[in-house]
Amino acid sequence: MSPVADFDFVIVGAGSAGCLLANRLSANPDHRVLLIEAGGKDNWFWIKVPVGYLYTIANPRTDWCFTTEPDPGLAGRSILYARGRVIGGCSSINAMIHMRGQASDYELWAQATGDERWRWGGSDGPGETLAIYKDLENYFGGADEWHGADGEIRVEPPRVRWKILDAWQAAAAQVGISPIDEFNRGDNAGSAYFHVNQRRGRRWSMADAFLHPVAHRPNLTIYTQTQAVKLLMDDQVQEDQRRGAWTTAAHRATGVRLLKDGQTIDVRARREVILSAGAIGSPHLMQASGLGPAGLLTQHHVPVAVDLPGVGENLQDHLQLRTVYRVRGARTVNTLYRNWITRAGMGLQYLVMRSGPMTMPPSTLGAFARSDPTLASPDLEWHVQPLSLAKFGEPLHRFAAITPSVCNLRPSSRGHVRLASADPLTYPKISCNYLSTEADHLAAVRGLRMTRKIMAAPALARYRPDELLPGPQLVSDDDLQQAAGELGTTIFHPVGTCAMGAFDTRGVPRSPATVLDSDCRVYRVAGLRVIDASAMPTITSGNTNAPVMLIAERAARAILG
Prior knowledge:
By secondary structure, the protein is an alpha/beta fold. The chain contains 14 helices and 26 strands.
């Protein structure tokens, strides 16, 4: 054991939330801040090139390369569960899609936490969510009613368009999904090209936005290739009289045990330990440290510090159903990639103009719609790709095709992340339990039928689309339910495993599933917060990186306030 190092704040995880927190907390030169990252630096070429996600996902250099437990809802399949393991975390390997979700999402958060500040706000009434998003944003079109221009998160339009996607958008309009200027205005109903976190054709990760500009600060220390293995806690706690999760604390977090350069070292946090290791990493570290469901910890011979039944539970994710349609007479990535001349042209276009297919996110065009017209806001989202492949990591098909993937934005299925061993270096068991409710089966069938309806619309007729997956022979609801299980895969949006919730006047959670209060403080463990996607009580309607930044900014203000 090497000597102990002291800091004011110790942040575990240099992903999206961790980068913002390191920026905000180290802005005061009196704060000594340590940021810990299990992965390495983000200076690899393929991290910065947008299409590089093809090389960063499922690569142990940048990805934890988790896999899920065999899932009955997915025909017994185990699937890749990518999570960023590099400076910038998932924002260094994700789809770069800037998606706030919808106002209705934050209404659910306000209800779950009893905190009105989570509401969307603006013309919709009280609430801080829209205002914080605007504060964080550097929007290409400048500041307006919906956007900010002075923040760190760069938001730009895509730098390539496709005629086949324009035709898909026109077909969607013919079945009632109208084109709109953009998403992110509170109700996303319609179709639009996604806005992305890029700057001049390069990925703009949250490390680019928040960490690299301040990495020179003398009061900010960054450890890479360093894994947190245990939270350090003290039984001697002075009761915090403020209403919230620390009112009835049994312990105080005092630091973190780390594995660095082959040595075990302890670092001390004089003020707070902050977990920003993500919806898999944060609950796993808590469980390995004795914070979690008592039965689970006892099963693995981990001494129980605090029985917190909600740690690792409430896992939610968007399941995408990848349909594939062969098309004719259309330019797609498949056709461009067929020979070295067009591939070379794509590379040259990127190097000279920072445009073209190499600037593409995994999905370019999006659409939102209601599976049931009685719903208050859309519950289905399409990610439409001008390419196709059998599955991620395999070669593109050698014919022109598109992939309109549809997902249920509000799944009712719930999974969990659970300790597999007392050894903190052993990966946890991730069980998603996709399609485990009748409501999710119904949404899947409706999504597949709506996709077929769009593909059969007149605007696409000239391209003579042929359905390859799931296949036109599958007609009945039972057939499509089975196809959903066979086709479905994660869209990499796990959230909710240390959920925020409401507390009574004594500072006791109203639900045993609650782990955090609305300021992300861990129940009964003073000096410990979880600030990442784990904190979401319910999943947002769309890609989850922007909502993580909302949580991180609000929590940073609470800490500093």
